[in-house]
Amino acid sequence: MSITGTDLSLAANLLLQGKLVAIPTETVYGLAANALDEKAVLTVFEVKDRPFFDPLIIHTYSLDAAKEYADFGIEPLLKLANTFWPGPLTLLLPKLSVIPPIVTSGLNQVAIRVPDHPLTLQLLKMVKIPLAAPSANPFGYVSPTQPAHVEKQLGHKIDYILDGGNCSVGLESTIVGLEDGKICVYRLGGLAVEEIEKIVGKIELRINNSSNPKAPGQLKSHYAPKKPLIVGDLKQLSQLHKDKKMAAICFGDEKLKSPNVTVYNLSVAKNLQEAAINLFKYLRLIDDSDADIVICEELPATGLGLAINDRLRRAASKH
Ligand code: TXA
Ligand code: MG
Predict the structure, then answer these.
(1) Torsion of CA 294, 263, 173, 34, to 10 degrees
(2) Percentage, residues of the chain above pLDDT 90
(3) Pocket (CB within 6 angstroms of ligand 1)
(4) I need a labelling partner for 173 at 20 to 30 A (CA). Which of 31, 80, 233, 276 fits?
(5) Which residues 6+ apart lie within 8 Å of 247 measured at CB?
(6) For position 13, what pLDDT does the model report?
(7) CB 143 within 8 A of CB 133
């Protein structure tokens, strides 16, 4: 039997036995384990090669289910959950004691969300347990947006990949919490800041590069492909590196025509949602190509463009 399929009962049974299953969400694929089973959660860290100081997001079927694991007494955050769940929003909330400390790396807050994918929602309803699920990629690498991405890197290490097709958002969830009485964004993601501000007013960005981050998605180098990646003006960069084979990531008009440049256009129509869907797919395609380096331009700094630029900058900082 293939490791990838759509057998929900099989996926549910494996999870209830403490095994790992990759699950589709609207953002990226997650590597899921029973969040209440410490041994299963430990395996998630091992399979991803993820440091134990980097806590996991838990996923539940509904806001009501989430209330069994986190304290929703913070009114504006409850409002956000009511507005955007199921959806690409993760909330940091005081954790209730049923959640084992390994899930939150010993922190008092738990990251929690209701994902917007029909298969995974059905699965969560069947298992009646919260699922701890980081993105289903080796630590620090680009998140998977298709079952084949998971299969390629982790297929030999996990029991099942639930095939929910391509992710419809393509960027990880936006992480929001409360600090010093202010609503803060810790990771830019699939829910635009502007949308959140419509509900709770002005929010603060705390997404700084750091060696001791609140959310390790804040690590300066993260979401990184293997090839060197440089962000800047495409024409200048292509001149500077004209002796190399280049992959150029652009948005809208294609500015380069040269035999040693392969162009990957995130969205010819300049649609930021389309660009988000294509970003991780392209980074993986380029890693598998014969390009020596990746050059890319920044996108408009609005809506999902902010999250995409953030990923590009972090991908660039590795080199
Ligand atoms: O869209 C997503 O969020 C995907 C899908 C699978 O839900 N998940 C995801 O998980 O991106 P992961 O583990 O790759 O990224 C979660 C981020 C990490 O940067 C982690 O440090 C942060 O959330 N995080 C998790 N729990 C936290 C906590 N209790 N306090 C602070 N940060 C936390
Ligand atoms: Mg991740």
Answers:
(1) -80
(2) 89
(3) 25, 27-28, 30, 54-57, 90, 92, 104, 107, 109-111, 115, 133-135, 172-173, 175, 214-217
(4) 233
(5) 227, 261, 262, 264, 286, 289, 291, 293, 294, 295
(6) 98
(7) no
